[in-house]
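Attaching the record inline, Q. Sequence:
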Amino acid sequence: MKITRILRNIYMNTKRHYRRFLLLLVLLLETTFGLVGYAQQVMLADSITRNPVCYATVYDANGTVIGRSDMGGCINLQKGFEYHISHISYEPKSFVYNDDSIIFLSPSFYTISEVSVTAKKKKYYHCKVFFRSIEHVDSCLKYYMDGIREFFIDTKSKKVHYGNVETNYFMSKRQDIAQKKRSMMIGDRYMALPFLEKNTLYEETMRDNKRNIQSGGVYADTVLIGSCEVFPDKDEMLLSVDALWPKSTLVMNLFGYTQVLSKHNKTELYRYNDFDAPCVFNLKSSNSYRHLTLTHKKENLVRDIDVEDMFYVVEYEYTDTKELSSSELLQEDYKKYSGMFPITERIKEQLIREESL
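Structure, as predicted:
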């Protein structure tokens, strides 16, 4: 009888504590999801064509990258949260998400002064690009750089020659995201000046025997890895691809550090009325986004790194000489085009906050 009574008391106490645990768990779930809301899949779409907008970068209220829309324009958002969307061919958008299943983005219509002289009559293609590079480490703004850079490209060989550059540079002083010098060789300070490749993303895609473009999609071994859309009303073509395919990750080891590249998307926008196929001479803008994780086998180090690089061709001409732009002219260009392509308010606030530290 005594043993039975002891077992009954243990059972009743266990049952009472179990009920309390369940009650606390329910209250916690109600509080969390009642205030924040469940993550819902949302499609980002062109406000005019209603077509999906793929590889748009989505930031949270702190200016931290939370992800990119997929090839169907979809991304998960939570009700009641503030978001900011950036894309090279659309106007920036800031909003607090409610229950909308579609978020519309307005196309941007920045224009470049056209030239009538063809590439065959001149030796060089001279262009200026306005560029911006942003790096977040563990959701903190670590590096920021923008500026103007000019290029001279041989119209026959397509060899790239560099001109002058004007930059604005920021590096965070926060010690909690500082890294050792040796780790910088593998996992830090990814920002770089823009570089024009001899061949565009479109040309590289078409030259790859395993890849092809059909029905608005980019396929590799029958796998959908990107999208290609022509905008007849703007004489533009937009190409976006998963630059990491066919790998799911790219791993590199050095000095005990392991760097894992898990996302790498590229997007290029072209003028589509000058040539039969998009080449470097009708490139309008470019965007590259990478997500990396950095760890160390002995040190207590785990870093999530998001890097976004973009540039816009803002001026171009064909010429027979390489006449470099003066520093004064580039400074004036920087003032002009930095106003034409403003940063998001959250990135601006981050810069102000970090610079005041």
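Confidence is low (pLDDT under 50) at residues 14-19, 26-36. Helices lie at 2-36, 181-187, 201-207, 327-340, 345-355.

More tomorrow.
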